[in-house]
Amino acid sequence: MMYSQKVMEHFRNPHNHGKIEDADGVGKVGNPVCGDVMYIYIKVKDNIIQDVKFETFGCVAAIATSSMGTDLIKGKTVEEALEITNKAVAEALEGLPPAKMHCSLLTEEGIKAAIEDYIHKQKS
Ligand code: FES
Description:
The protein is an alpha+beta fold. It is built from 5 helices and 3 strands, in the order αβββαααα.
């Protein structure tokens, strides 16, 4: 299994790792096949993702894509963040081995789940 240098950098030194206690939105997603689980926490103000953190209990690719995905949505509007795809995250990491593309889906789904939770809380 060959990972790009960027993937290994983000795996060894993940950005935005941790938890936001008073998050405005929390997304929890998992892959039932491998059993990996990811939490994404967001803070939103004036429709901008002010802060984002993740906790990922998973493989190298899941951790690296969490790190890159959270970097990509930080400072973006909620709408822009919703448009981030797992492909964009993988490209920003200089690619993923084909067998590991599904791991990047966890990141896309985690971000979407956190934003949906935020939107849902706004309405209630
Ligand atoms: Fe489970 Fe990568 S093997 S997310």
